[in-house]
Design goal:
The protein contains 8 helices and no strands. Helix content is about 75%, strand content about 0%. Helix 1 packs across helix 8 and helix 6 packs antiparallel against helix 7. The chain has about 200 residues and is mainly α. About 20% of the residues are buried. It has a domain of about 120 residues.
């Protein structure tokens, strides 16, 4: 009986894989990777870089001396945004580091402007600090998922219960095994297509 159920599960997996839309490149099928927030962090980095460049005359204390640092910071943010990928922990770590540095620099600089009663400078610097705060949060969430090997995996109620508890009443063990097998098969297929497209 168990052998027959296993065969039926494998048959169902193959039918699901065959019915999948394979005309869509693997990149687009993976555009919504669970536990990956690198795309949002990338957008925040580009937004911060734009604000830094466009608003530079309004928030710097001495534009000629501050401008080289701002340009280097913008270049660093754009490079960090460009190399962000869900397949390398180093790039997500770099994003988290860049966001943390940006948060510290602009928050300290904002408080300095607040103490000097320069409200426009304070507001612009504070906006940049908040952008970096959200980028840090999203990068740290992504890095945590990578370190815990949860990237691309969906959470189930079973993931939050103690091992061996009987809270799987909603789903039978066969359904859970089947869903895990389908997820693994799709992961393997996407990996295979990813590496085939690189050749």
């Amino acid at each position: 009986m168990a052998r027959r159920n296993e065969f039926e599960v494998q048959k169902q997996i193959m039918e699901d894989l065959e019915s999948a839309d394979i005309s869509v490149p693997w990149v687009y099928r993976w555009s919504r990777i669970s536990h990956y927030y690198g795309d949002s962090a990338r957008q925040l980095f580009i937004a911060a870089a734009l604000v830094m460049l466009i608003a530079a005359p309004f928030y710097t204390d001495d534009l000629p001396s501050d401008l080289p640092y701002i340009v280097v910071g913008v270049i660093a943010l754009v490079v960090a945004a460009a190399i962000t990928t869900p397949w390398k922990k180093m790039t997500i770590g770099l994003d988290a580091f860049a966001a943390g540095v940006g948060l510290i620099v602009f928050e300290v600089w904002a408080l300095h402007a607040y103490n000097n009663n320069e409200m426009l400078k304070f507001v612009i610097r504070e906006v940049l600090a908040v952008i970096f705060l959200f980028a840090l949060y999203l990068s740290a969430k992504t890095l945590r998922a990578m370190l815990l090997h949860r990237m691309g995996k969906t959470d189930t109620p079973r993931d939050f219960t103690a091992a061996g508890s009987s809270s799987d009443n909603e789903q039978s063990t066969d359904q859970i095994k089947w869903r895990d097998a389908v997820q693994n098969a799709l992961d393997e297929r996407n990996d295979r297509e990813k590496f085939d497209s690189n050749d």
